[in-house]
Predict the 3D structure of the following.
Amino acid sequence: MSARATILLADDHVLLLEAFRRMLEPRFEVVGTAVDGAALVEDALRLEPDLVVADVSMPRMNGLEAARRLRGELPRTRVVFLTVNEDPQMAAEAFALGASGYVLKSSTALELDHAIQTDDPEALRDELGDVLLHLAFQIVIAEERSQFNAEVVTRSLEEKMWRRHPHLYAGAKGADHAHWELVKRREPRAGGKRGTLAGLPPTLPPLLAAYRLQERAAGVGFDWPDAAGPMHKVKEEIAEVEQEQRAGSREQVESELGDLLFAVVNLARKLGIEPNRALERANAKFKHRFEQVEALAEERGVQIGRASLEELDKLWEEVKTRTA
């Protein structure tokens, strides 16, 4: 049986270090932990681990400087940064120093969604662990800043559920989305009255953001009565894209394409279809069919990349007929 890889962990949050250790030890040998960059360098030179997992922002010496010092002394030790810092320049500097990875602690939600969509129990287990770790990370930071703790988070969630979703509790009436949006508008946020569209995270994927914006507007009555309105709007936006394309203005074409995509999302919403899920299915279907086209082309001696569009289109139509 091969020896487990050795890992040295570095983060200035002690609770997170312990959480990291518990997550990794079943598969890896955690040989040490460090709470600052200087200690990281000292421990790494002494222990010579296979892998260093470190935060970028640490006292005494930041993770990048620590990695810079280790690169010459321990060329076989790989360094992975696990951080909340989303600055592309910071990531580029990390990779320039030879980092093997730059993982955002805030990326866990998307990975969890993928695990759910693929119905992979092992991946789901791991990603739920990452989400819990991220939750612990944020609570530790808040506790250190004397802002809130885990008990306050739990109590706030309970109060919000009672306030926004009373239909979930015994004796209450059914769900009322319009009432829900009005309740959210009355909640004070950032020192003032909450607007209908306020509070959406700016980091939401654009497709989901469009859906949430339309959903919120619909909650206060700004909505089509049925799908006929959005269907007409989609056709109208297609015509406007064609018009701007003829005019030759790239900026206007981009603007009209944005309006078209927004209208398509609205149509999906009125048809009761989650647009992101629909697009994921379309992506998967295209990938599957194109892989079949490649296989069919190889079978018939057709070189992908040198074949004409007409040849490829015939193969595509044949694959479509097979999979219809």
About this structure: The chain has a mean pLDDT of 81.
